[in-house]
Design brief:
Blueprint: H1 2-23, E1 41-51, E2 60-64, E3 79-87, E4 96-106, E5 113-122, E6 131-139, E7 144-153, E8 160-170, E9 177-187
Antiparallel strand pairs: 1-3, 1-9, 2-3, 3-4, 4-5, 5-6, 6-7, 7-8, 8-9
Bound molecules: 2-acetamido-2-deoxy-beta-D-glucopyranose (NAG) (3 copies).
Main location: secreted
Signal peptide: 1-22
Subunit structure: Homodimer.
């Protein structure tokens, strides 16, 4: 009787050990279908970005500068934080599809070229609640600027692609700008 109990005890201990060992792994191969991934899709998004610096309620604010920023022709060292609305047409009052939230910093000493680090937070249709992350160079006075998509969340998990920015209007005095975006993104 005591021997049977001992064997039972050893069996239980052994199965507990093997179970916890199989739970402990650092990496293993899994199939894409285990994450519900089907065929990769390509989506084209088109919207207008409104960067308003000079207004009663600005959507982009300067948060830092260097001692020499004001004397630099390219505003080198200026850092802005934005929470800019994205709309379907150039009018800011048109339907909002998302917001561009992030930072841009003047990172060239020879022309106005920003380091852009931002998330597009979408609020429209099946993209509502999903985000895309952008990291790129934006020389605002050149025609079409291209910035890589470094990833995304929600329906944009595993995304890759690029965003093209083209200035629609810019007011040199107020620095307020409307920028047309064409985004090409692969996702599942
Ligand atoms: C740069 O110019 C702005 C606006 O004229 C001023 O508010 C700011 O203090 C200046 N910054 C430096 C570091 O001189
Ligand atoms: C987006 O999702 C939020 C939260 O789930 C919801 O409140 C909002 O109405 C949705 N907007 C659109 C345009 O579907
Ligand atoms: C996308 O960003 C918003 C904030 O803008 C956040 O509430 C939401 O959880 C993010 N979506 C996902 C899928 O992580």
């Amino acid at each position: 009787m005591a021997r049977n109990l001992l064997i039972l005890y050893i069996l239980i201990l052994f199965s507990a050990l093997t179970a916890s060992e199989s739970d402990q792994y650092f990496s293993k191969k899994i199939s894409p279908s285990s994450l519900g991934l089907k065929k990769e899709k390509l989506t084209h998004l088109h919207f207008y970005f409104h960067d308003t610096i000079t207004a009663k309620n600005p959507t982009a604010v300067q948060v830092a500068e260097a001692a020499m920023t004001n004397t630099s022709s390219s505003n080198f060292g200026a850092v802005f934080v934005m929470d800019d609305p994205l709309t379907v047409s150039p009018e800011v009052s048109s339907k909002m599809v998302g917001r561009a939230q992030g930072i841009y910093a003047s990172a060239s000493q020879s022309e106005i070229a920003f380091l852009m680090v931002l998330n597009f937070a979408f609020m429209e249709g099946k993209f509502n609640g999903s985000n895309l992350s952008i990291l790129g160079r934006n020389a605002i006075f050149s025609g079409i600027r291209e910035m890589p998509i470094v990833g995304g969340s929600g329906v944009f998990r595993f995304s890759h692609g690029y965003a093209q920015a083209k200035t629609h209007t810019i007011d040199i005095k107020t620095k307020n700008a409307i920028v047309e975006y064409n985004v090409y993104v692969f996702h599942y």
